[in-house]
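// run 5 | inverse folding | seed 20
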């Protein structure tokens, strides 16, 4: 994805059929209050990494490109509602901000690697954002170390002779070019509010 914000899901919840809606509008990006949650102190996640879902498994660091933002998302392809709704809302938000989305990137890490092979998670993510980066690891300890640092959580159970039971948190995380987690959006934040927040954060990024 041609962006530099990281989006990730937090606040453990089971998937549910909530539909986020958005509305067009504009506001002064230098004065409005952000719709997302700002954590204090601001977490520094620049030392963290997960493997890209490629044969090389190149470590992906959670740091946006210079003067950009990175969105990181933790989810899975079989999620019936939260994951596809979140990605669809993001896609709508990027459309609202137009060319500014070139300064925002997206990475999605699967929390269900048993079913989400590298090909599966990459194909799913690219169906929404062709340039986004898919992340995958079979090392549950490594994955939990990263999700814990973000404040995200998940559970994945695979009962014998039963359907897998997977749940995950529902926040979308935003990182800057220093690897700081500057904002997180709860599930249900509208695409319009996401777009306005992105514009404001991008303007602030250019000032630092």
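// decoded
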């Amino acid at each position: 994805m041609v962006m530099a914000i990281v989006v990730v899901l937090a606040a453990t919840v089971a998937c549910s059929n909530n539909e986020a809606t958005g509305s067009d509008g504009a506001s002064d990006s230098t004065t409005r209050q952000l719709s997302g949650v700002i954590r204090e102190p601001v977490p520094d996640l620049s030392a963290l990494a997960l493997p890209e879902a490629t044969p090389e498994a190149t470590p992906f660091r959670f740091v946006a490109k210079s003067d950009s933002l990175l969105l990181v998302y933790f989810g899975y392809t079989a999620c019936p509602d939260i994951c596809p709704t979140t990605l669809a809302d993001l896609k709508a938000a990027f459309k609202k901000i137009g060319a500014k989305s070139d300064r925002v990137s997206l990475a999605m890490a699967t929390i269900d690697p048993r079913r989400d092979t590298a090909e599966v998670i990459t194909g799913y993510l690219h169906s929404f954002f062709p340039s986004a980066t898919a992340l995958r690891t079979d090392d549950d300890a490594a994955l939990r170390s990263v999700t814990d640092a973000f404040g995200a959580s998940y559970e994945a159970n695979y009962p014998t002779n039963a359907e897998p039971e997977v749940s995950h948190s529902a926040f979308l995380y935003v990182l800057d070019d220093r690897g700081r987690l500057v904002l997180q959006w709860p599930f249900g934040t509208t695409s319009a509010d996401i777009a306005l927040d992105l514009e404001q954060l991008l303007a602030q990024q250019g000032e630092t």
